[in-house]
Amino acid sequence: MIPVSRPFLPPLEDYNNLINKLWDSKWLTNNGHYAQDLERKLKDYLTVPSLHFVSSGTLALQLSLRTLNISNEVITTPFSFVATTTSILWENCTPIFVDINPQTLCIDANKIEEAISDKTEAILATHVYGIPCDVEKIEQIAKKYDLRVIYDAAHAFGVRYKGKSLLNYGDISTLSFHATKLYHTVEGGGIVNNLGEEVNRDIQMLRNFGFENGILQQLGINAKNSEFHAAMGLCNLKYIDYIIEERKNITKIYDSYLGELIQKPVIPNDVEYNYSYYPIIFESEEILLEIQKCLEQISIESRRYFNPSLNTLPYLNEKIQCQYSEDISKRILCLPLYNGLDSDVVEKIAHTILERIK
Ligand SMILES: *Cc1c(COP(=O)(O)O)cnc(C)c1O
């Protein structure tokens, strides 16, 4: 079976070299040497003011809402992974869904203002597939209404916009380093804080039970990550340029067959993209299902990412309609894209799709 994604693995020797040292030091977690080293290296690579390594992208989102004291309505996107919404609910806040721009599939910034009430405290939007939200417009709205901005940048590792890291936009950006992501630490996440030292301190306490210098200062949780995860991150970071380059090449092969004939999300100008996913949009759900079945018959997995639209989740109290998101989530399919994916397989996938849509 060709999977839809497969984790990049560094040479085992690289990883073993780092792990061997843990047998000597016996320091396995709690802000160890590797975790600190990884934070420094990621901060430099991503050119961001701070980076906190945590146990998952989901905890990164939850800690971000906590540290900004968000406790009421949060304007958010219905087109994302479920964790974007669950983090809002888990923090006892109310998600207010605003429909997406049908081109970029990110939240439609032009529809945000009409969703703002006197209970709105923040905007939590996803740079979906690594495509930047309309960050300028969102910043303008946030200033006008005094709202906090958190970006779920789980897909946006390495993406640059107008010459700087996309993670520099907003008050906080969160990353996921899960094994299925472009860059991974097996499990893990990151918080990029653009608000300065006080918030950094807070994040450090929150992820470590509320401790600071051995004293319990506030209500925290365990969102630390281990030396084993950090070691994987250090190994993988050495290959990140190669990882992105190879994915770019695979994307180009797909594009050469499908580019003109199939609808894809639109990447705006001034973006240095990371080639994290290869989503395509079909004319109808029926065609999607038919093609997914044809691919399955030749042992190729594809993924309905994202489906369903998050405004339709069964555990929401209030239903808010989002026409574009509900429609597109039924018609969008992600094709296999990972390091080591053979160009012959890409060709076969493209032909299988072309046969059905022509
Ligand atoms: C993967 C993902 C998350 C969750 O990250 P985990 O590390 O798996 O907790 C959150 N948001 C988006 C958009 C994601 O793709």
Q: How would you characterize this protein structure?
A:
The chain has 358 residues and is of the alpha/beta class. The chain has two domains: 12-98 and 105-237, 3-Layer(aba) Sandwich (Aspartate Aminotransferase, domain 2); 240-357, Aspartate Aminotransferase, domain 1 (Alpha-Beta Complex), CATH 3.90.1150.10. The protein contains eleven helices and 14 strands. A seven-stranded mixed sheet has the order 1-9-8-5-4-2-3, sandwiched between helices. A three-stranded antiparallel sheet has the order 7-6-12, with no helix packed on it. Helix 5 (135-145) links the parallel strand 4 (120-126) and strand 5. It starts with 11 loop residues before the first helix and ends with a helix. The structure holds pyridoxal-5'-phosphate. Pyridoxal-5'-phosphate (PLP) binds next to helix 3 and helix 4.
